[in-house]
């Protein structure tokens, strides 16, 4: 319940405050979002399998975001920023699909 | 995430809601920040400026725009050249049409297929029957042609062109299919003065007609109009060689 409240508060805050993303953060935010989504989907899967752990979620969420952002940063420094961010998005997307498939199998048994 | 959960799910859900643990608040904060970031990013993506685009992507964009620009530039050059070609060819064909029209007018006067008007002379030959024969009439016509007559008609009905023949008939002269009787009125378009000189000189046409017992009078006119047309036959055997 509390996380749902957090979700609503976050959306409302984003809509009401309407801040602009700082220029320095702009390349990293999309990748960070995808990484965080991966963590959230993984948490949902763990929740469904009744082995959800707050601590694991928090650590995986933060580390996912930081590593993804760092990889994009590193790619930019190496001059392969767009390719590396594509790669990160692909890998995270595969993970999201895999977790979503596991959730689907558990719910629908299909 | 196979880690063993620290907190087994033994508490009833209602209890969890009433007394939220520290870690649950952290999870809520994280999810809230994710939602916040997503709304932020969606709003950002909707604004269509290039501030969020990477430098190398901008370079790629610029390159593709450059090449597109170049391509379109070549296209413009091609199309301009085509347009110029078409314009000049239109001009040329207009010029050719003008010339062809002029030529057609000249030829129609020459061939007697259209009427003609201009300065000229009217030569009237009166003579007793058979005093003037076809040869004499042809002589008169030739005299006028020598003097530069451009269009000739006799008695207003017989247009004299290249194919016109002169034949002696019964009490008449057959000129190009028309039976003509005296008096003969020859209208000729050309330089009136030259033609008058060509007819009047001593021993010339007028003298010859007088010798045959007739009389000829010539009137110079600034404007005469010939409406008689020659019958046009398209050539049956002759073909242009070019």
**Number of DSSP helical runs of chain A:** 4
Helical/strand content category of chain B: alpha+beta
> H/E series of chain B, N to C?
HHHEHEEEEEEHHE
SS elements, strand count of chain B: 8
Poorly predicted regions of chain A are none
Content of β-strand of chain B: 15-25%
**How many domains in all of chain B?**
2
Largest sheet composition of chain A: none
Q: Which chain pair shows the most residues in contact?
A: A-B, 46 and 38 residues
Assigned CATH architecture of the largest domain in chain B: 2-Layer Sandwich
* Mean pLDDT over all positions of chain B: 83
Predict the CATH topology of the largest domain in chain B: Alpha-Beta Plaits
Oligomer: heterodimer
Radius of gyration of chain A: 16 Å
Q: Between the first and last Cα atoms of chain B, what is the distance in angstroms?
A: 98 Å
User: By CATH's scheme, which homologous superfamily of the largest domain in chain B applies?
Assistant: Protein of unknown function DUF881
Give a structural overview:
The complex is a heterodimer of chains A (110) and B (242). Chain A is an all-alpha fold. Chain A has one domain. Chain A contains 4 helices and no strands. In chain A, α2 packs parallel to α4 and α3 packs antiparallel against α4. The longest helix of chain A has 28 residues. Chain A is globular. Chain B is α+β, with helices and mostly antiparallel strands and 242 residues long. Chain B has 2 domains: 59 residues; 113 residues, Protein of unknown function DUF881 (Alpha-Beta Plaits, 2-Layer Sandwich). Helices cover 48% and strands 19% of the residues of chain B. Chain B has 6 helices and 8 strands. In chain B, the strands form 2 sheets. Chain B has a 5-stranded antiparallel sheet. In chain B, strands 4-5-6 form a 3-stranded antiparallel sheet, with helices on one face. In chain B, β2 and β3 form a beta hairpin. At the A-B interface, α1, α2 and α3 of A face α2 of B.
